[in-house]
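Cross-posting from the modeling subforum.

Setting up a comparison between two proteins and wanted a second pair of eyes on the formatting. Protein 1 (sequence, then structure tokens):
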Amino acid sequence: MARTTGRSGTIGVIVMVMGVIFAVAGVATYVMVSNELAAENITVSDDAQWFAGQDVTGPFTAYSEAEVISKHALEATDGKTYAELDREDPARQTAMQASFLRASLFTSVVAFGVAALAAVLGVMLFLIGWALRSPAPAAAQPQAAPSTESRSAPV
């Protein structure tokens, strides 16, 4: 099977290389974030709606633990958020720490999402580059227009 030459072939190679870079970077980032979360030895609380008792190593367990932290903080502050508590209220420190922990977990959830997006985008770029390098099917190639000259019948 012949390959396309010229600009589309060169662009195809460039897009394929960028796709590989994006895919590798996305997978590496996903693994790194997972390993860093695992190193913190966080376990989803037993009263969590989802993933109770599991280690926090992925986006779903991180989200679940963040939700439980919110629930516990609201219980400790009688349903008030950090901003709603008086500056002198001792529960304000608890609300602040809960807010910090939730933000950290949500940051990891976002990092997982961006890493997955980069990996999928990388695969898509590779496929687009590959398509640019492939020849057009025979049916899609332009055909020579029929001659408009009138043909005379043989005598």
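Protein 2 (same layout):
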Amino acid sequence: METVSKANVFFNKGSDKWKTPKSLYEKLDGEFFFDDFDPCPIDWKEGDPDGLMIEWATNTFVNPPFSKLDDWIKKANDEWKKGKTVVLLMNAKTHIPSFHEYVLKSPVEIRFVKGKVNFEQEGRTKKSNNPWSTMVLIWRKEKSPGFIDLTFQK
């Protein structure tokens, strides 16, 4: 992982270290029962394991650096193919290549978050000046309840 410049992430003043609000995490955890594992912890520093290179837990929540969404979406899809459930919180950037390559071509559940998410930074909740809405992508071990397999059977 690398430091992000202001030019790459204009809305967050040069930092990808924005913590998920506790209430949002707890709501998702109550549904998915996440393992005690964070592939991209907010306190990550040089020399720590790279979440894009290591094995993830069986039920993983991910609030990835928004400057590298393509990499994290691909990794989430790869982990799902290993039989895991991955819940990924991200900007609603449906135009990025990974969204079309991995989300729309897999049985991923997409939930849009109503209103702006006020992420936490440096121990304080900050009003979001993020211009994007937020969505949650869910890759389930088992098929999503709304997923219908349209494979033709003879």
